[in-house]
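Board notes (copied after class):
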Amino acid sequence: MSKENPCKAIDLAAVHAPATLKGVPRQVAGNRLSLVEGEPRIRHSHQFEIKLRYALPEKQQNSVYDLAVYFFLPPSLGISHANYGKERFFEDLQSYIRLKTPEVSFTDIARGGAGPLSRLNAAALRLQGDTSERSVRLYEYQSKLFCCVLKSSLREYVGQIESERDPDERVRLMDEYRVAAASIRSTYSALGPRLCYPSMPPSVQEMYRFADEYISLLLEEYTCRVIVADSEVKHGKKLEAGLIDLVQKEISHRAAEDYPSVVSPASDNESFVYRRGVLKKFMNSVLFLNIRSGEGSHILEEGLFGLAAGVSMIFATAVLFVSTQLYGALTGPVFFALVISYIFKDRIKERMRLYLSRKAARWLFDYRTTLYASGKDRIGVCSESMDFLEASMVPAAVTAVRNRSHITEIEGGWIGERVIRYRKLVKLYPVRIADIYDGAHIHDINDIMRFSIEEFVQHLGTVDKPVQSLVNGEVKMIKGDRVHHLNIIVRYAVDGVDAFQRYRIILNHDGIKRIELVPSPAETPALGT
């Protein structure tokens, strides 16, 4: 009987709910920390990304979530604590914490009301009589936030159009899109005469133009996607003509304003791609938290190491005291007792340091980062650490998740893996965040981890591994691809409740081939089925 593949390739596929195993804490309803759907994903051949979403509890002064990522490294990668230290690990790691974009539907933005476009209008109106630094900052903040919300709403709405299978409903959504897009463009353009005149601060005029250019690029990009969706319906040319006219107006508008972001069919459009990327980062900066890094828990660590040295010194002093009582001062036995006590003193100190480090691991971190909103408002603290773990130090619950499939028994039981643990502890101040972003409806935090495996693959052999097999009665050499499996287990916890997810990264000398989600035991077919 054929066997089903117990793993599901997920390059950008949906992620299952976190696994639960016997002996492994369950994720209960209401757990506010979760993997974002569709993650992790391959950013390029040597880097993958894991994104988590954390729901901010309302009216709570402090909130803490705990993340641990366990890398189970096969010996073939040649990675160990001797050649891959903390500094290199954190060079390969890119970690971001950002506010999740407020969710407002595309049509609601067009209708106005109390949405982001209305708040932007209010900030622009305030500048008519007050051009203070505070008013200018408020306008810049509302402009960036509006652009972020617009991009998110466009992505959701156009995605809905593309996935709609009913032709009549798709046509209705596309026509609704055309009307809403024209309304948003008209409303924003009306701000120009109110903001772009000589007595208005230059920074305000520049902010208007940057946002104007970015909005134009967004409308062009997503309207082109709608046009493609429209061509699949084949309902007529009237709606398509309206959409094409909308795109053409945006292109002409950018050219008339002398914005350096007009596509040229005869060039490689290097400046266009670069400009669009810079504008995107500039607008998104309103959601990324500013960080100020510092060293980790060195005071506690030094205190523990001092305690270990003190215990070892007590031993050596006790040996000296007892030997002098038994044999007198400066005798041969005392001399040998001192040498032996010195040897054991160092061993005791090292063992005590190791023991205390393990016991205090939950409080010891390599780096401590303070999180700021708007550059000055302290809204949280993030602590990070990385260390190699011996098999006996891996938590039992993590080991249970690692050993959930039969192929794992071969990988882990016959060949010793090395384990890296990356840990992040984040403390946030939800009430302070709500006060700073009052009216923006910020309810979630996105925690993004990007990791480079370039160091992991540089010692791997060639990709090709030809195999012999019988084909049509003849023995032939058939192409074989030599791959290696990097298993990753993500443990995320909030309010004392743990949840787990395991992934298998298939890689070779050229980089990442794919990422597989390893399902829970209930989803894995039994051996022999």
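Comment from the instructor: The first strand starts at residue 8 and ends at 9. Residues 202-233 form the longest helix (32 residues).
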